[in-house]
Amino acid sequence: MTDPLVATPPGIEIRTIETVDGAFEAAAVLRDVWGGDRGGMPANLMAALAYSGNYVVGLYDGDRIIGASVAFFAPPATRSMHSHITGVLAEYQSQGLGRLLKQHQREWAFSQGVGHITWTYDPLVARNAHFNLRVLGARFTDYFVNRYGAMDDGINRGDQTDRILVTWSLASPPVPTPDDADVVASVAVPHDIEALRHDSPDEAAAWRLRVRDAVLGHLDAGLTVGGFEDERGYLFIRP
What is the pLDDT of residues 206-225, one digit of tens each? Predict the structure, then answer.
């Protein structure tokens, strides 16, 4: 286990998406979370993934769907699956529901004989770095420059889509935040990149290049990301 299980709040339930109507409802929620992105998770693709046995679930408050998560299997020999998208409506965020979805995803993966889950996230989003590296204890795996190309949604529009790939080893202890003595470099990120993109897009773009160059420079020097700290950002260690 990583941390103690998160209790499911009263009235909240995670259900497998099994109908076309459910897929359209879930896709609409994800479109809302991503600021109107109509191409991020089309309902027909979600329905196809569900039908072929992949992980497609909705997070419900009573009968209302308030979040969703989709993951698909990687090549069989790797015993892995890739978590493509997970989102919760804004009014339900910061209540531990994202953690609850990840917990459910982990348990479902175990039931399918999966030992690792991978996913990507924007390295500039501090809360996601904190959640992935510090809360879940996932392991930094790679840095991709402009991984998905241009994306036309309210979050990513006008920015390049650099992404960090993390791997969650489900049966292993979480990767701990490194001791200060082991940290040889750090790369800070903005506290709220979304606000910067809205209020000062030039500054947000400068952060993208600054963080990219610093991270890639440390990786080229043989270091790796060992964890994340809210004040210092990404913590680099020697492998």
Answer: 999 999 999 999 999 999 99
The reported pTM is 0.89
Q: Is the four-CA dihedral 43, 156, 160, 147 of positive or negative sign?
A: negative
Q: Which two tokens stand for residue 167?
A: 């791997």
Average pLDDT over residues 185-196: 95
Report the chain's mean pLDDT, rounded to a whole number.
91
Residue with tokens 């991978």: 118
